[in-house]
Every structure is written in C-alpha cells, then in structure tokens.
Design brief:
about 525 residues, alpha+beta, FAD/NAD(P)-binding domain, Polyamine Oxidase, Chain A, domain 2, 7-stranded mixed β-sheet, 5-stranded parallel β-sheet, 17 helices
Length: about 525
C-alpha cells in the first residue's frame, strides 16, 4: 500500500437517540508500516482488532487455526449424500440492532448492511402451549416492558402482584461495573427467585437470556443476566427483533472482510496454528507458528477461553504470574449441540424462520434456514425439501451424545409434527464445548484487555470490559478496544465506539434503584 484507504466509521447509531458514543482518542491518522502486530485468533474479536489496526497503517498478521474465519460464527463446506455441497456452521446467531460495533465492522464491506435480512418476529413457545412474540411490542423503554406484559399470556395480574418490586429495582438502573458489584455473587436462578418472577413467564422471558450464554441459570452470574435484560429490553430502544445473514457466514460476512483486510496490507493466515509467544530480546514478541517464527512489535490475543488458556500455558514467559493464573482459571460453559437436518419435504408454510422453545427437553430453538438463507433456499427449491437446524444449549456433560441427538430430533417432531413423515436426506451434528462460562462471583477474576505488558492485549467475549455489551458485541467491542490500546501507545487515532445507554433511562427509576441498593 502507498497510503491510507478511506475508513468507514466503526459503528453507526441505530434508532436509539440515547445510545452512547465513546469518541476515539486523538492521534495521527496513519503510519504505514512503522508498527507490526500479530493478531492471534480470527473470530469476531480478532477481525475487529485487525481491521482497526490495518486501517491505520499497522502491518497486521492475522493467525487463525481453523481453515475459516469468524470463530463461533464461522462456516465451512460439507458434501451431502445427494452430492450437494453446502455450508455447515456452529449454529444460529442473531445480529441484534444493539450490536453497534459489530455492525460497524460489517459496514466496512456492506455499508447499508444489505447482506443482513430482518426476521419479522422473535417468537417463543413453551411446551404447555403458551407462547410469546416481540413483533408488536414497543421498542422504547419503559413502553417495551409494559407492552410485553400487556400483550403476553405469560403474565397474569396475580403473578405481577406477587413480585417483590424492591428486589427487582436493580433491573431499572444497570451500570457497569456496578451491576457486577451488586449481583455477581448471586446466580441468575436465585435472583429470579428473590424477585418472585412468575414461573410461567420465567422460561420465556429470562431463561432465553441466560441460556444465550450456554449455561444453566444456576451456574450463571445474575449480573450477566440483568445486563442482558438492560441491553435488549429495558435499557435500549432498538427492540428485540434482529437480523440474520442472507447467505452463509463465509459468503455474507467474513470472505468480504478478509479481502478488505488484505487490501489494507494485512496478511490473513487461516489454517495457521500459533504454538507459543515469547517476549523478544530488545522488545516485541516472537510468534512461533506451524510455518515459521516471526517477530512483531505487539500481540493481540483474540482467542476463546480454551485457546487462551492453552496458548498461555505453552508460552511460559508471557505476562506476569498473576495474569497467567487468572487466565488458567477461565472456565468453559457446558457443551452444546447443533443439529442440522436436510429433509425431503418442507415444513409447514406458517413456521417462523426462528423459534425459541422451552420445556421441550434439551431443545432450545429451531431455525428453518431456507426461510432466510439463500444457499438453503436454493437447495429446498431444487429438492422440494427444507433445511432445519436445532440447538441444545448447556447439555449435561455426562449425557450420552447419540441419545441427545436422537432426542433433539424427537422434540422437533413434537413441535413441528409434519416433520415426523420426512426422510432425512442428510444430517450434521456439531458438538462444541468452547463457550466461556460467566460463573457466580467470577467477574473480578476475568482477564481485562490490558496486561502488565503494554504491547500485549487481550480481546474476546470472555474478556472483562466496563461497557454494557455481551456475546458477539462484546467480542467486537473488545477487539476494537484492544486495537485502541495499541494505537494510543503509538500515537495513532483510535476507533470510535458506541454502546447502549450505560444507565437506566428514567431518573426517578434510577433513584429508586439507588435507594434499593443501599
């Protein structure tokens, strides 16, 4: 490259006028080739860090162990028994409108986000036949909560009268890190018990959030669940409807972004394992991979919890002892299962593209991919069939996997009875156990973006950040923050970030929550 390529903003605020902007730190706009950085991990966090650095002229080498980018939102080709080549992935991901920084990353190659498709509803179904929908719920708090209660059959007047309003007040003024100081030592389950949240509504309104972390509510920090409620419901006016990619993840998202990085001088090395990282004599780091050893001025560790633990354990001179011990204590959430079925006939035409479920054994949601993904739609049109995906989060680690797979399909037949008569053209079962666990009392022990070495930074959804973000948005945000830490050191302009409001929206409710927290 001979000069800077015009940058697009990191994020663009959605409809919420109270969304919070974090201005970029000042500095030079560009410094071609003067600094080198190894970004280890090609998931969302690593891609965000690599993008912000490469746009400012930092020479970036992105190392990714898998042959594909995107991490847990990645995809790879698979050949079906009928000869079709399809893209398999690790399951459904909802791209919520609150994901300002992730959506800003995607805008680098898709300025209008035309590669995303909005689903018309976020329906939820319980095994007793009770259901909920967010389609007609107002998006702006507090009308969102009031509207959901008014429209939902999950809430009865007697249930609401039985709730403990004082114990529930922390929901109304969520701040980071204050929410962790108040609720991290309580489990999500115990918090729901304390506020006497209605049992009928609990499955549909709260466990949806807690199980998004692939964890049982008894294991999950209440602070994380309450933060989720703030991000998606009481703190943001973006609502609970979401977008999904129109094409499989590699085609819609990560292939174009890889090309963008390369046009900015970055080297994208998929299928490249980093064996260890060591401080180099005279400064910087030696990064030893399966191809060669290379020196870099700085390193971004953008790995999942397992990968971070493993690499730090192999890199015995990296970081200080206290940091290494904290990384070693990172825990994984229970395993999860994604089952994708290619069926020889369609599901009923009124089935939604996505359905959250509760009370159907281990089944947590059902996606009908041919409703919104072009590759699946082409296969369904050609064969007269359908492509259906099932998720089971937080599976018992001792469970017999073949039995879990069979039971998941049986629950599909229960929810969508027309699938009982379908022949399975092909099936893929993906078992994974690499999502971070946010256990009760674990917040203070999580690694932060900065380490004792200013040229070694960490990013990912397991990383602690004092911003109201979660899941994929936490990955993207911490990736940009890690890049900002290095850019600040080098006197380069940082990346502007956005978040949902960092406190409750109503002053009177904030005062009430503060009074309750005394």
């Amino acid at each position: 490259m001979t000069g800077p390529v015009r940058r697009r903003p990191a994020a663009r605020r959605g409809r919420d006028r109270r969304a919070r902007v974090l201005p970029a730190q000042p500095g030079a706009r560009y410094a071609e080739g003067r600094h080198t950085t190894a970004v280890i991990g090609g998931g969302i966090a690593g891609l965000a860090a690599a993008t912000a650095l490469a746009e400012r002229g930092v020479k970036v080498t992105l190392y990714e162990r898998e042959p594909y980018l995107g991490g847990r939102a990645g995809g790879w080709p698979t050949r079906l028994r009928d000869g079709s080549t399809m893209t398999m992935s690790r399951g459904f991901h909802a791209f919520f409108r609150q994901y300002y920084n992730l959506r800003g990353l995607l805008r680098r190659t898709d300025p209008t986000l035309a590669r995303l498709n909005g689903l018309p509803d976020y329906p939820l179904l319980h095994a007793d036949g009770m259901g909920d929908s967010f389609r007609h719920v107002p998006r702006t708090p507090p009308w969102s909560a009031l509207g959901f209660v008014a429209l939902s059959p999950s809430f009865r007047l007697g249930d609401l009268r039985a709730m403990d309003p004082v114990s529930a007040l922390p929901l109304l003024d969520v701040r980071v890190p204050d929410v962790y100081q108040r609720l991290d030592d309580t489990s999500a389950y115990d918090f729901l018990e304390a506020i006497r949240f209605p049992q009928r509504a609990r499955h549909l309104a709260f466990e949806v959030f807690s199980r998004s972390f692939f964890a049982d509510p008894r294991q999950l920090s209440a602070a994380e669940m309450v933060l989720m409620f703030h991000i998606y419901f009481l703190g943001s006016a973006e609502g609970l409807l979401f977008d999904v990619p129109r094409s499989p993840y590699p085609a819609a998202l990560w292939g174009p972004l890889a090309g963008y990085l390369e046009r900015h001088g970055a080297e994208v090395r998929t299928g490249s394992t980093v064996e260890h990282v060591a401080p180099a004599r005279g400064g910087g780091f030696e990064v030893a991979g399966d191809r060669e050893e290379r020196r870099h001025d700085a390193v971004v560790l953008a790995l999942d919890a397992i990968g971070l633990r493993s690499l730090v354990a192999r890199s015995q001179r990296l970081g200080d002892p206290a940091w290494r011990e904290r990384v070693a204590r990172l825990r994984n959430a229970p395993p999860f299962l994604v089952t994708r079925l290619w069926l020889d006939r369609p599901v009923a035409p009124d089935r939604p593209g996505f359905l959250g479920t509760s009370g159907f054994g281990g089944l947590d949601n059902i996606s009908v991919l041919d409703r919104w993904e072009d590759e699946a739609a082409r296969w369904a049109a050609r064969t007269g069939g359908s492509v259906v995906e099932l998720h089971a989060y937080a599976v018992d680690p001792g469970a017999q996997r073949t039995a879990e797979e069979r039971q998941l399909v049986e629950q599909l037949n229960r929810v969508y009875p027309e699938t009982r008569a379908a022949t399975v053209v092909d099936v893929r079962h993906e078992w994974r156990e690499d999502c971070p666990l946010f256990p009760v009392g674990g917040y203070a022990d999580r690694p932060t973006i900065r380490t004792s070495d200013p040229c070694l930074v960490v990013a990912g959804d397991a990383v602690r950040t004092d911003l109201p973000v979660a899941l994929m948005e936490r990955a993207a945000t911490t990736g940009f923050q890690a890049a900002n830490a290095l850019l600040e050191r080098w006197g380069l302009r940082g990346q502007t970030l956005w978040t949902v409001p960092d406190r409750g929206r109503a002053a009177v409710l904030r005062k009430a929550a503060a009074w309750a927290g005394r």
